[in-house]
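Record pair follows.
FIRST:
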Amino acid sequence: MVQRINYESLPEVPGPYVHAAKHNDTLYVSGLTAFGTPAQSGTLLEQSQEVLAQLNTILMHEKRSRSDLIKLTIFVRDISKQRSVRDLLADFHQGYLPACSLVEVSHLFDSDLLIEIEATIALQS
């Protein structure tokens, strides 16, 4: 059975989907963005910080740690600015490196958005 989850402490989902779907011992997190937050019109670094804060909120809600991150898929509008994102991610992971894909895209669903991050999280160690 699949459990569909919206987290009240995260920005409202701007489309016909949920923040995450739980199946067996895995949580699949929809693309998180800075949409609807003060960081929405900010820099790539500011938006990245907001998105990672949202991801951390999900981890805390699920009583999981960063070591439980299995995979991230990161979509950025300008890959030439990836250094700031990579440095931020290195600090965020605290040595627990997940599998990761970094993809440059021409647009996200709102013109202000510069980054979107999807995650897969193990719910049991």
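SECOND:
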Amino acid sequence: MSIVTIASNVFSNEDLEYLTQCPQTIAAKDALTGSKVSYFNLPITASIRQSIKISLGLDLENVSNIPMRWITGDTTAHNDVGASAFENTYLVYLTDSPGEFIVGDKVHSIESNHAFVFSEGTTHFTQNTGDEPRLLLGPMNEFAEPVGRMTTIYYYNSYSDYQVQNGNTLGYQENSWIIGDSANIIGSGIGNYTNWRIAYIYGSNVPTGVFSNGFDLSTLGLGAYTFYLYPAAPCFLEGTTVLVSVDGQEKYVPIESLRKGDFVKTSRNGYKKIEVIGQGNIENPASDERIENRLYKCSTSNYSELKEDLYITGCHSILVDTLSDFQKEETIKHLGQTFVTDGKYRLMACIDERAKPWNSEGRFTIWHLALENADPKMNYGIYVNGGLLVETTSINFLKNRSNMELQ
């Protein structure tokens, strides 16, 4: 039999004001457009930590952030799941809402500053809640980790489609944490895409790396999260010039003018023919967030090798002689290990302190290229915009994992 504990007046008026009116909460509510749930985290204050201990019996002394969410509409009957085993679900409603919260066999009104604690495996849902968003602290487990219904994965053609969230999905997936699990995808499928990014959500701890079909999202430890995926695209902004050989003369040519068979100068292997060149789009935000899925400006003032400013995506690497301890740690966070191309370390633009987020908002055309190589998984160092050494991609990546339109 499920045991349900109810507590009222959990937080003080000052705590409620912080939880409901802070900038992160307002931004997360604005992000609800076209979506039913908006997840975010808030730093936990000493007074909130003490209130939770008194009302809910949780000692969160070693917790620095608490999971929050806005929800619109009814939730269907479900049992909470998380990234790890847990004993109880803890949640606090922070706003009043029409409708009812049904947990076990009891019906409860949804009132601000009321908390519920119930054991793992307890079925619960809401009904008659209408369209007014409601704010919750949690649902979380005893370790302040988010829990909820089994994850849903939405697949979009592009980051802009995710932002609009107008139903223009490739498909969506339920009852499975595995990316590209065709047995559980509802809709028309996910096309030929194999490589994905998780759309960044303001204030969340969503990782910004690249994940391939077959990856188990539960290993990220995010609990019962709703994931929004779109194809990955690491590249150069259109207009980037590449050092090539034209009629025996070295010159810098715009990347969009290059074609298969053109000769590109590499740092250690002479000239190599272009095997594949790809074109795509990226939606660039207006913020200064240092995330992978955006464009960065490498200015001539910060890179002496450049003759003109260079714009590349955050996951594109500049080739350098050494990495600082910070750069090594951040590279391992993003890629799992450090990598070397043509005797140089790969330093991603989003990690390189010299590269600055380019906060020009909009959709931009991006390009990438792969050069001939007996090993389709290998890449080269090439020179762009006057002499900065950067990486190409590999034939295998561009053909099978870039999600770009190939020339």
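COMMENT: Helices lie at 13-21, 23-30, 46-56, 159-164, 325-335, 395-400.
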